[in-house]
Structure formats: structure tokens, C-alpha cells
């Protein structure tokens, strides 16, 4: 696909850089500072106390991205919190995804988000979507992400309805490696694992995205107590409002895998019209038995895998590392599953992924 084929290009223009401010954190110019962390329209930057600040970006590499360097090609997705666009870097023609989130939050939440963005930018794992740069400008957070040309697992599932076990094992293996990285290298809980936060590409890669920031927004914004702001994949201990840990993500993974296998969200509403509001679903997850894979339709390994994830007591769930050694993941290991072919057979990618900066 050539640059500009898809839609008239929108220019993302940026006002000239503001003076950076050293005040404690939120300033009139929209700059936010907390300790050594500085977030403003020029990016996220770590500054030492003694350093004289300049409006440079913090990427460890020499490549310093600015929003003005991108052409917007097309809107590729909309979530509750914002809009995602396919953008193209003007000088290299490489594609990225630009996520723009409009926020209306106080300083304490902004402080949390700044920390999460810092973690996102420092994440280096082939199973986690790369966050290249983040910007904050008076209520708008813009995040330049690695572009995943197959979209999300939710988009893919809509096309194929169900995913056969061998492909599911190959997908799951990558998600587990990503989760293992987040849990044990970064010490963070994803908190918002769901099919739309697992992205795929034509090379057969599966990567986790949206950890931290969207979960913070969902739990702190006005959406917090609505059906919209609450994930269908939340573990019972989270719903109950108690403490929760890494194993909360494993519950979500189990529900996602079951949904991918059956083509349906694992909990069925008591009446045909769907869930009668958010409390009914939450009540079902907390009080009804955990869902399971029907043993007449799926292999014993798959049924056992789902049961190892979807235990109502988090202590009875296996960790990401333990699950990587589960017989379901091992079963198809020597089959050389071609996920790239499988993903692209459902439809060509919107734009071809070029080498990253
Ligand atoms: P929610 O707002 O409830 O978390 P969501 O995850 O679908 O829902 P977004 O994170 O805004 O919302 O993403 C919207 C859609 O944009 C995704 O479903 C996916 O199709 C697409 N998308 C997001 N990030 C990327 C990316 N890095 N590369 C390609 N497509 C992406
Ligand atoms: Mg998302």
C-alpha cells in the first residue's frame, strides 16, 4: 500500500514546545513532573535533579519522535477511552499506531499514568507491543505504538468465529511469554487483559498491549462503576474489591482462550436478551461456578489448561511460567504452526508492517 492510498491525510500539528517547568507536578502549560519523571507534549523524559532540562525526548535511542513527523492515514479502532489511528512516519514511511486518549482527571491520576507510561516505554519484549513515545498536552495523552497489522484478537475472532486448538496453543504460548515478562520482569499486573488488548500481525506474532494506562483510566474515571468501564474478563477477587495479584491476569487469559475456542463469551446471561446490567454479570462471576471447556468437544489437555486458569481461588491458578510447561502448550510444539499464514488467510492486513525504527 502506498502512502495516502486509504484516506485523505490529516495533519497532526503541534504547537511550539512549551517552556518546561520545574514545579512539583502539574503546571499551567500542561507539563507534568513527578520526581525525575517529566511528561509533556514533547514526550516522557527522565530528568536528574541536577540536570538542566531541555525539551528533548527520553527514548534511549537517537530516534526522537514528534507528533508533527507523522501523517494520519486512517482510523483503525475506537475504544472507550480514545481513538487509534494508523499513522505514517513522514521521513521513513514506516507505520505506527497513534492512540489518543482524552482525559479529564486530577493530578494524582496523571501521576499514576506518568509512571505507567514510563514502564511502557521501558518494556522490551517481543510479546509486548512497543510503546515508542508518549505525549501529554493539556488533557490529551497521545501514545505512539508499534503498529500490529492484523488488528486485535477480538477483530480476528469476529472473522473466524472459532480458533482450533493447535493455533490457540501457539497464540496462548506467546501471550504467556508476554505475561511472564510483565509479571516477573516488570512486576506489573496487566489488569485489562481481553481479546481487544491482544494484537496480531502478518508475521504470526501475538503481543500484549494496553497494560496500565487504560486500566487506571477505567478504574478512576467516571466509567468506573458502569458496564462500559468494567471488563468482562475481570477476576472474581477483583470484582469483590479485595486485593488481587498477577493471578488475576491468568483468570482473564483462561476466559479469553475459552472464548476463542468456543466462539462465545464463557458466561451465558440468564435471560435471552443479554446481561441485565453490570451487576448481574459481576454477580454471576462471583457466585456461580467457574466456566469450563466441554470435555466432549475439546482435548483433555485444553480442558485441563482452562481449569488451571479459571479457578475462582487465585491461589489455585497456575502462574504464567507454570502454564508455559502445561501439556496443552507442549502438545503442538513440534507441529510448526504457521500463525502468520493463519492470520492473513482471514483477510489481508490494512497496511504492510515495515521494519521498525
Ligand atoms: P477499551 O477501550 O475498552 O480498552 P479497546 O482495547 O478495543 O477497548 P483501544 O485500545 O482504543 O480499545 O483499541 C481499539 C482498537 O484499535 C483495537 O481493538 C484494535 O483493533 C486497534 N488497535 C489498537 N492498538 C493497535 C496497534 N498498536 N496496532 C494496530 N491496531 C491497534
Ligand atoms: Mg485496547
From TrEMBL:
Name under which the protein is recorded: mitogen-activated protein kinase kinase
Protein kinase domain span: 70-329
UniProt family annotation: Belongs to the protein kinase superfamily. STE Ser/Thr protein kinase family. MAP kinase kinase subfamily.
Single annotated GO MF: protein serine/threonine kinase activity
InterPro entries: Kinase-like_dom_sf, Prot_kinase_dom, Protein_kinase_ATP_BS, Ser/Thr_kinase_AS
Matches recorded under PROSITE patterns: PROTEIN_KINASE_ATP, PROTEIN_KINASE_DOM, PROTEIN_KINASE_ST
Pfam families: Pkinase
EC number, UniProt record: 2.7.12.2
Alphabetically ordered keywords of this record: ATP-binding, Kinase, Nucleotide-binding, Serine/threonine-protein kinase, Transferase
One of the GO BP terms on file: response to other organism
Binding site for ATP: 99
Species whose genome carries this gene: Handroanthus impetiginosus
